[in-house]
Amino acid sequence: MAMGANITGVKICGITEAVALDTAIEAGARWVGFVFFGPSPRNVAPDVAKMLAAQVPDGGPGRIGLFVKPTDAEITRVLDTVTLDGLQVYAPEARAMEIRARFGLPVWRAVGIAARSDLPSATGLDGLVIESRPPAGSTRPGGNARCLDWGLTEGWRAPAPWMLAGGLKPDNVADAIMRSGARAVDVSSGVESAPGVKSATLIRAFITAAMNAFRA
Length: 216
Ligand SMILES: O=C(O)c1ccccc1N[C@@H]1O[C@H](COP(=O)(O)O)[C@@H](O)[C@H]1O
Description:
Elements: E1 9-12, H1 18-27, E2 31-35, H2 46-54, E3 62-68, H3 72-79, E4 86-90, H4 93-103, E5 107-113, E6 127-132, E7 162-165, H5 173-180, E8 184-187, E9 192-194, E10 197-198, H6 200-215
Parallel strand pairs: 1-2, 1-8, 2-3, 3-4, 4-5, 5-6, 6-7, 7-8
Antiparallel strand pairs: 9-10
The structure holds the ligand O=C(O)c1ccccc1N[C@@H]1O[C@H](COP(=O)(O)O)[C@@H](O)[C@H]1O.
Keywords: Amino-acid biosynthesis, Aromatic amino acid biosynthesis, Isomerase, Tryptophan biosynthesis
GO molecular function, one term: phosphoribosylanthranilate isomerase activity
EC number: 5.3.1.24
């Protein structure tokens, strides 16, 4: 999961089965994500994720494990079974830095924002995932199909490579890229036919729309 200053690409998150993974690989996803968070409809058991991760060819998308406020033991339990190339964590910066040091993998921190002042001005991490805040009462901090105001990141001098997430779909991702200035995007709900059920058609449409927008 190399992250240069100008990363461009698409992450398809919340993959739980082989067809969706194959589709994401064939369509040109740069990263694929596996969710290790019980309350999510995309939660995947480590033994299933192990088989999926092994299906990614050399030179294929980076395999990202998503964790919410994880303990070291939770991450260890997954990494003992699944080969991952990076971690996406929902945790404060200091805890994310601890995780990075402890496990020796690149770490992106997910940050929910509601105002420009919420955008981080500094980080010691490998990247940031900038997304909307969850709705009140949500059981999860992301994966809620909720858009942020894309204008909030326009002209932002990001302290690290970043990707835009939250409520992206095939029919709004081009607009989101143009208005936010993002060079990388992350999607879960927007490529599903039902919560947790990925659609090959929507995955292909999303990656095509995003890559066309990056080239525009
Ligand atoms: O996908 C989930 O279920 C999930 C659970 C807990 C934390 C994050 C989760 N998903 C991430 O949230 C954003 C936005 O997702 P969406 O496209 O709005 O569904 C993205 O980074 C997902 O990977």
